[in-house]
Design brief:
The protein is an alpha/beta fold. It has a single domain, classed as TIM Barrel (Alpha-Beta Barrel). Helix content is 39%, strand content 20%. It has an eight-stranded parallel β-barrel, surrounded by eight helices. Helix 3 runs parallel beside helix 4 and helix 4 crosses helix 5. The longest helix has 18 residues. The protein starts with 13 loop residues before the first helix and ends with a helix. Bound molecules: ligand PBG. The site of ligand PBG has 11 residues, from helix 6.
């Protein structure tokens, strides 16, 4: 048989395949999310996220040192707020001595070069488990934005490199940028969760932080997963309002959105490989139905191929070991 072109030539050996690979993963692609708890020497496995833990700050600092030595350059902080500190204003979110603010300081003191990003949304602090302030059954926009500005400034004061608003209120990126400028925080970045969908895949995360909404759902602020053009609109508006990085979330069911946003904006795009995606791989691997290591690398590579410059993932450490 005569063939002018034989595509299998480029797939013939591992060496050739690696020479022509279009996408490769490196440790600096990853953002490692960390769940932080009050107390000392506390390490609690999250039931729906096997082998992922909520740690007290002393253990977190050790882990961050270890991650830095492995080549991971960025962490994204989440804290578990004590029940008695939760209310409908979310005011614990901007407490100078709050767990988040203490964590930022401790991590920056221990590993100054580590890029520290912080989640900005009221849900862990809200007695209603919503990302914003509740009035009646409504999650009110403008008052929530004011709270998010205070929260962001307090994170910047504590030393955060980037604030990462994950709340999906309107106008929050512009307001946070202005707040940071007004306070002189001209070096603090904003990674906007621009296209954040109302997803069932956040379940395990809400277990981790005990932050499930007490009533209703998040559909009046997080996006409808039926929509694509709306994601581009959100991302473009966030860039206009001053976002340095835009994010798409969740990851795997939204690879088309990652590509769409990547093609539309002139800033780096990140994707969040969220808790439910982690849980699915862990569960199938536990059943012996898939090879966990291969599933991790294939999944993370798909994000980069789709156009993500950065990947927030609970597999950051596993992935660095696997690609090492
Ligand atoms: C809170 C927040 C959520 C996640 C990140 N920030 C949950 C939510 O919106 O309910 C989800 C992360 C994950 O599932 O891994 N604003």
């Amino acid at each position: 048989m005569y063939l002018q072109r034989r595509n299998r030539i480029l797939r013939a050996t591992p060496a050739i395949r690696s020479l022509v690979a279009e996408t490769t993963l490196t440790p600096s692609d990853f953002i490692a999310p960390l769940f932080i708890d009050e107390g000392v020497d506390i390490k609690t496995e999250i039931a729906s996220m096997p082998n992922y833990y909520r740690n007290s700050l002393d253990i977190t600092v050790k882990e961050v040192k270890e991650m830095w030595s492995m080549g991971i350059k960025c962490v994204l902080l989440f804290i578990k707020c004590k029940e008695e500190l939760k209310d409908n204003t979310g005011k614990e979110a901007w407490n100078k001595n709050g767990l988040m603010q203490r964590s930022i300081k401790a991590i920056k003191d221990a590993v100054p070069e580590m890029v520290v990003m912080t989640d900005v949304a009221l849900d862990p602090y809200s007695s209603f488990g919503h990302d914003g302030i509740v009035k009646g059954t409504e999650i009110v926009n403008d008052e929530t934005v004011e709270a998010l500005v205070k929260m962001s400034i307090s994170h910047a004061q504590a030393g955060a490199d980037f604030v990462a608003p994950s709340d999906m209120m309107d106008g929050r990126i512009g307001a946070i940028r202005k707040g940071l400028e007004d306070e002189g925080f001209t070096k603090t970045g904003i990674m906007a969760y621009s296209a954040k969908y109302a997803s069932c895949f956040y379940g395990p995360f809400r277990d981790a932080l005990d932050s499930a909404p007490g009533f209703g759902d998040k559909k009046t602020y997080q996006m409808n997963y039926a929509n694509r053009i709306e994601a581009v609109k959100e991302a473009l508006m966030d860039v206009e309002e001053g976002a340095d990085i835009v994010m798409v979330k969740p990851g795997l069911p939204y690879l088309d959105i990652v590509r769409e946003v990547k093609d539309a904006v002139d800033v780096p795009v990140s994707v969040y490989n969220i808790s439910g995606e982690y849980a699915m791989i862990k569960a199938a691997a536990k059943m012996g139905w898939i090879d966990e290591d291969k599933a991790i690398i294939e999944t993370l590579t798909s994000f980069k191929r789709a156009g993500a410059d950065l990947i927030a993932t609970y597999f950051a450490r596993d992935a660095v070991k696997l690609i090492g």
